[in-house]
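Long-time lurker. I teach an intro course on protein structure, and each term I like to show students one example going from raw sequence to a predicted 3D structure in token notation. This year I'd like something fresh instead of my usual example. Would anyone be willing to generate the tokens for the chain below so I can use it in lecture? Attribution to the forum is fine with me.
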Amino acid sequence: MIVDAVPFIGTLFDPAATVESVTPQAGQMAAMMRAQYGQPKPTGPATDPGAASMAGSMSNTPAGRTAIARWTRDADPRVSAQVLFEVMTTDMRGELAAVTAPVTLLYAQDDSAMPAERAKAAFEPQYAGVARFSAQMVRGSRHFIMLDQPETFAAAVDAFLAE
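-- Reply from a regular --
Happy to contribute to a lecture. Here you go:
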């Protein structure tokens, strides 16, 4: 089961993206994140940073945004930066034909972030070549589907595990 992920994230921002074309941006973003290492962190409880925040792009609920803000605050920015860089500069699409296990993709869709047709076009074609592939759009959710639509997420996981 794959949850709101694609084999090459660059195409979510530019359909013609290549590893080479996204590497400079990935490097800049990682450097900005690494620069946070050693900086003072808030010590109080995490609060909802709001819908317009980075966390707001990942969850459409106050509780979800608060959880993401806490995770971000508590994470080591050096590790987060390296993970971000590697995810942005890795293209696994060429490996998908070798996958023989069944693959189920759950992907987020929220009208305020991306219309349903665009979400389907952004996610599903990336898995071309996977022999046993199914996809389920989870409406009313952003990246953290399990925070925004926990019942739908749990039912999808149960169905996948029952196969």
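Some talking points for your students: DSSP finds seven helices and three strands in the chain. The chain has a mean pLDDT of 94.
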